[in-house]
Amino acid sequence: MHSAPPVTPVTAAVRDLGIGPDTYGPTLDTARSTAATETVGKALAAALEPYRPQALAVWRTGDDMVLAHIAARELGAELLYASATAGILAFDRTPAPGRRVALLAAAWTEQGLSSLRTLAERTHGLDAVVAAAVVDTPALRAAGGLATLHLTADTRQEEPS
Question: According to the model, what pLDDT value does residue 47 have?
């Protein structure tokens, strides 16, 4: 007889927030609970710490930006918000080339991860050291040589935006 794995504070926080579709893939509803959002953001920072990122790159979506803000605060890292307007990818500021950057999302789609990685590495000369997510998706296994991490044991399929 199999028993369910124990519920960790992070898993409980993710369940409290819930996961739903967004422009760049599944995301958490950070407006539901500030306490749960803090728990998840701090857990992301702790998981990222061994990679020593100097910056966190995230798509400009509200919930991912909130999580990235908490993680960046905990790590003392710079935030880079990415957007795609009329097919043009850009960060909100020009980062210094060579900086160690973690790519962050609540959950990745292959296109979202690939596009952000290309923007960071090829366009700005950053050193992408890890792709991090709250929830596992197939995109993390397709990251091609990039270290990956996720906080929960749950795996989500990509959802159309």
Answer: 97
